[in-house]
Amino acid sequence: MITHYSSNDLKDLAKALSRTGKKVTKIVTKAAGKGTTIVRRRTKPKIPVGETGELRKGIIRKAERSRTKGKKVYDLMFDPKKNDIFQKPVKNPGEAGSTNTKGGHAYYPKSVDAGFITRDKGWVPGYHFMAEGAEEAFPEARKKMIDTTMDEIEKELAK
Q1: Are 48 and 55 in contact (CB under 8 A)?
Q2: Cβ neighbours of residue 150 closer than 8 Å, sequence gap 6 or more
Q3: pLDDT score, position 102
Q4: pLDDT at residue 120, as a whole number
């Protein structure tokens, strides 16, 4: 297996994918899923536990819908089923200068990750766990996706 990937290797990978025919989507989906799993594993421990631990439990992987054949993107997000836990009412929306409290609710995971403005115009910094986890996992996730793609292509071409 190749351990260092150049642009030529990635072009070879694209050619090999085209030779597999209609199995491209299946191969790409599997590879993207494995890469997203690595990012999730790196991000999850960085999330603060808090009082209930729901924030850490609530991170999920959701597939993005695309019209493009052979494209698969997964999004790491907080489970919308837990919005009753994650959405907190804001008593005076806009008082602290915040304009992103639609409907008088603040989204707790975003506040923890990005930070927020307090009533006295102070700033509570965020943990930035999503960006840090993704950056930290990028090299490993990229390698895993390419390795998985190559393995799946070899399996398909061997049939």
Answers
A1: yes
A2: 1, 2, 13, 16
A3: 60
A4: 82
